[in-house]
């Protein structure tokens, strides 16, 4: 059985699904390696322009595998390859939409936060419960969560370890959209199809700028955006998009 499944339904969309139902999709070494392999493959697959990252209908991911790390030493944690897996996800250049049903806890919540858009079901629950098992988040929970929701909401989630509902997560800016549980995957897929049909160089640039700009002073980020904006005028899709608008026809984008 493979812990991470890839589907390529066509139209520039890929689906990456975590498949470890017996442990609520806990992120053990096999799942982490599977995710890294999947995203590394999709990075270089020119047919793929947007990715949906999903768990099951019951759980997105219940965090790092507690059983696998309960007796680990710092050296074992350092050498377990997790850093590499997260780096592949962090550096993935194409838009990723997380489709979240059920639990998204600890490393699972951190995984969702690696996505660019999060679609959550009404029954989804997000949390960073690491403190309850004597550790802290290790894949961006203290940083990405704080950037997403602000210090005071993040502190409450991190310091109590209590999960929040999808509606609460949406209200604080952790979730892009909440839909009925049974509609999560279809909605994520529909959005992925919309994005995959748009100029892919522009989509990748937007992702790069939003992420890189968040770590820069405003003026430096604006300058970076301006230069990228100018470069867009060297793409085939820019010419096609603007000509199609003027000629009152649908554009045919080629990703060039
Ligand atoms: N690790 C290992 N096994 C797990 C995990 C987990 N995180 N979560 C659930 N399971 C297993 C259970 O042990 C159980 O197995 P078994 O049937 O063999 O006893 C099975 O999945 C089903 O779980 P439950 O019976 O507990 O199901 P419930 O519906 O009663 O509860 C919960 C669901 C609320 C999700 C509950 O399982 C839970 O609290 N899980 C732990 C959540 C947690 O603490 N997550 C944080 C882990 S630490 C972490 O993520 C650190 C991140 C660091 C960086 C990332 C590195 C990858």
Automatic annotation (TrEMBL):
InterPro entries: ClpP/crotonase-like_dom_sf, Enoyl-CoA_hyd/isom_CS, Enoyl-CoA_hydra/iso, Enoyl-CoA_hydra_C. CDD domains: crotonase-like (cd06558). SUPFAM superfamilies: ClpP/crotonase. One of its GO terms (molecular function) is hydro-lyase activity. Pfam families: ECH_1. Transmembrane segments: none annotated. GO terms for biological process: fatty acid beta-oxidation. It comes from the Bacteria. Keywords: Lyase. Belongs to the enoyl-CoA hydratase/isomerase family. This is Short chain enoyl-CoA hydratase.
């Amino acid at each position: 059985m493979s812990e991470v499944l890839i589907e390529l339904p066509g139209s520039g969309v890929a689906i990456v699904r975590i498949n470890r139902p017996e442990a609520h999709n806990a992120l053990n070494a096999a799942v982490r390696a599977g995710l890294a392999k999947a995203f590394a493959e999709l990075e270089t697959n020119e047919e793929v322009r947007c990715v949906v990252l999903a768990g099951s209908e019951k759980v997105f991911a219940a965090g790092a595998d507690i059983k696998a790390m309960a007796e680990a030493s710092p050296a074992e944690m350092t050498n377990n390859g997790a850093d590499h897996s997260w780096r592949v996800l962090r550096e993935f250049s194409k838009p990723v939409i997380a489709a979240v049903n059920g639990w998204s806890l600890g490393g699972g919540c951190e995984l969702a936060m690696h996505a660019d858009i999060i679609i959550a079901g009404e029954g989804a629950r997000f949390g960073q419960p690491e403190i309850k098992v004597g550790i802290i988040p290790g894949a961006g929970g203290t940083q990405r969560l704080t950037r997403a929701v602000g210090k005071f909401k993040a502190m409450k989630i991190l310091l109590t370890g209590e999960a929040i509902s999808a509606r609460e997560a949406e209200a604080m800016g952790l979730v892009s959209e909440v839909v009925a549980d049974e509609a999560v995957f279809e909605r994520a897929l529909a959005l992925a199809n919309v994005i995959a049909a748009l100029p892919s160089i522009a989509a990748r640039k937007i992702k790069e700028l939003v992420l890189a700009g968040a770590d820069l002073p405003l003026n430096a980020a604006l300058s970076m955006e301006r230069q990228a904006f100018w470069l867009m005028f060297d793409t085939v899709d820019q010419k096609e998009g603007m000509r199609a608008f003027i000629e009152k026809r649908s554009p045919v984008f080629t990703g060039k």
